[in-house]
Amino acid sequence: MPLFWIFSRQSFLNLSVYRLNFWSEMFALFVQIFVATTLWNVLYAQAPHIFGSITLRDMVTYAVIGMILDKILSTDTGPHHYLSEQIKSGMVTNDLLRPIDFPHHMILRFSGETMARTAFYVVPPAIVAYLLFDLTGPKSVAQFGWFLLSLVFSWLILFFCNFLFGFISFKTLDLTGFFFTYWAMLRFLSGMLIPIWLYPDWMQSFINWLPFQLIFYTPLSIYINRFSGDAIWHAVLQQAVWVVVLYAIVRLLWRRIHRQLVVQGG
User: Fold this and answer.
1) 113 or 150, which is more confident
2) Cα distances (Å, whole numbers) of residue 143 to 136, 150, 170, 242
3) Which residues span the membrane (predicted)?
4) 175 phi/psi in degrees, rounded to 5
5) CB of 44 within 8 A of CB of 36?
6) What is the mean pLDDT of residues 243-248?
7) What is the C-alpha separation between 187 and 158, in angstroms, rounded?
8) Which of 201, 160, 193 lies closest to 62 in space, CA to CA?
9) pTM for this model (two decimals)
10) How many domains does the chain have?
11) What is the pLDDT of residue 94?
12) How many CA atoms lie within 13 A of 131 on its CB side?
């Protein structure tokens, strides 16, 4: 835990220093929110019948909260970037010499950073968004609690996916060529831009076998009350199972990579 608070404090100080970057990101976020809300308003005005029981208010809430959560559920930062930079610079040897398990080191580092980013990039824009837009929310405190629990599992699933993606850099040294494909795949399959229920049935069946829809679609569906009753804990249980599976895969691959890793020079 002391390491967690050290990383949190370090991230908080870093974010406090770059104030221009903070305001630039806030401006870009609200431009995206304005475009998304305008788009959904136009689509509902043109053909409201194609959205079924989902109201315009629910859809706008889904889009706005999804864009705000993108500040902490993002591929722009994470263990994949850290691994790639450390391997290219050769500093990965320092990480291997630390008296702490490397995957646990990564979890502490980036969970601390996420806590700081939540304070800067999630809470303030969420308050402003509720003042500017007619957003809905969970119908009870219990529903909001399920949303927060689902959000924790979402972060862990994305973290382990990013970690597995970062393993590629042990073979290629650079993730640049793969990054756009990975970024686009997550945007499309996670339900961040378009809710999964709007996809064709055959595509929904395919996506349901993957962990990506659990990153955005599940917590957002709980937030707007699309999931209720047994559907909520079924969805959260599915997230928990994927967290265990992805953690096991990370441990297995990391053990094999660590055993085969050869460091030259020095």
Assistant:
1) 150
2) 13, 10, 42, 21
3) 20-43, 115-133, 145-168, 180-199, 206-225, 231-254
4) -100, -5
5) no
6) 96
7) 12
8) 193
9) 0.90
10) 1
11) 80
12) 7
pLDDT in tens, 121-179: 899 999 999 999 889 888 899 999 999 999 999 999 999 999 999 999 888 877 887 88
pLDDT tier, 2 (very low <50, low <70, confident <90, very high otherwise): low
Domain extent at residue 170: 1-260
| Total residues belonging to the chain | 266
Give the HSE-up count for residue 140: Cα atoms under 13 Å, Cβ half-sphere: 6
Q: Hey, what are 266's tokens? A: 């020095």
pLDDT at residue 67 above 90?
A: yes
Alpha-carbon distance values, 183 to 28, 35, 139, 173, 244 (Å): 18, 21, 33, 18, 23
pLDDT at site 262: 65
Give residues with Cβ within 8 angstroms of 186, minimum separation 6.
Answer: 75, 158, 161, 192, 212, 215
Best CA proximity match to 182, nearest among 167, 194, 200, 197? 167
> 1: which 2 tokens?
């835990």
Contact, 125 vs 68, CB < 8 A? yes
pLDDT value of residue 265: 57
Q: Is 266 a domain residue?
A: no
> Does residue 208 belong to any structural domain of this protein?
yes
At CA 67, angle to CA 51 and CA 245, rounded to 5? Answer: 90
**Residue closest to 152 by CA, chosen among 69, 254, 83:** 69
3-state class of 71 per DSSP? coil
The two structure tokens encoding residue 208: 């349901």
In the block, tokens 């806030």 appear at 26
- Mapped onto helix, strand or coil, the DSSP state of residue 192 is coil
Mean pLDDT of the chain: 87
Residue 136 belongs to some domain of the structure: yes
CA gap 218, 150 in Å, rounded: 7
